[in-house]
Amino acid sequence: MRAFHGGLGHLIGPGAALAFAIALLASGLASSSVGTYAGQVIMAGFLRRRVPILARRLATMAPAFLILATGVEPTHALILSQVALSFGIPFALIPLVVLTSRRTLMGDLVNGRATIAVGAAVAALISGLNVFLLAQTLTG
């Protein structure tokens, strides 16, 4: 990322590089907020547990701060973080398909067989692509 930031600053100017850095920070904070809120809704709704907001924020931000503190090269850290984050998708998608397929939970809004089949296929495809991504990242 440092190379992109520096290249952007060289090509367009320091203002563009600063705007990129601010936009990247805002994007990360927004993503963290959405993930934290989604976790709160799931914990409160399904598990009937409440976790204080400070504990949730620390749990979601601690890995990023730990990586920054260790001095890992930013571009490599970004790639690894995206690989790690991609593995969260099946953990959300598979329960989504399973839970929305239960008539006892969804009532009249339960998924039909076609939706279940497509959802299962998409979940399997994404899971397979994640395994491929992990293999490519670790070997290359």
UniProtKB/TrEMBL annotation:
NCBIfam families: Nramp_1. Keywords: Membrane, Transmembrane, Transmembrane helix, Transport. InterPro entries: NRAMP_fam. The chain crosses the membrane at residues 12-34, 54-72, 78-100, 112-135. This is Manganese transport protein MntH. It is found in: Membrane. Its main location: membrane. It comes from the Bacteria. It is a multi-pass membrane protein. It comes from Actinoallomurus spadix. Pfam families: Nramp. The keyword Transmembrane helix applies.
